[in-house]
Amino acid sequence: MNIGVSVPLPAYLVDVGAMARKAEELGFESFWCAEHPFIPVHTESRFPGSPDGVIPEEYSHFVDPFVALARASGTTSRIKLATGIVLVPERHPLVLAKEVSTLDLFSGGRFLFGIGAGWLREETQRSCGRRPTPSSTASTTTSRRCARIPSRPRNRTRRCCWVAAPRTCSSAWRRGETAGCRIG
Q1: Which sequence spans correspond to the domains of the chain?
Q2: Are residues 59 and 9 in contact, defined by beta-carbon separation less than 8 angstroms?
Q3: CA nearest to 120, candidates 8, 11, 41
Q4: What is the CATH number of domain 4-149?
């Protein structure tokens, strides 16, 4: 059975390099870091992990998963390094592609890219450059929320830049430009 370990919160109190090294020594298969770039002070979104819907204070204390996993990569040699999850709609596609490909290169191909869209509407809206808008219900689904955010052009750009050789891409952001992610 493959069992992984996740960085606890508040994550800035943990030396992720030492934790990953110990996890590898103990035989864990993978080392996971989650992401919330920030937690808005005022939200209408309900936290899905508690009956009262209140977001725990610990959720304000995530570290950047790529920086943390880069540190873990430098102290380990076998354990897989994973994001659980990266909030893809909240990141610029070309920067994200560069972060993923660089971490995978430097870790020797041990990176596992866990992705998602998230549950915190106000975080997603602010990350996408929009002011939060009241939801019609407290349980607005991620799919409906993400449909209001222009991520499809970003997804086409992501697919275009994760190829071995540069190629011409078209999206709402870039028309007919050659895109590709090269390291080095």
Answers
A1: 4-149, 151-184
A2: yes
A3: 41
A4: 3.20.20.30
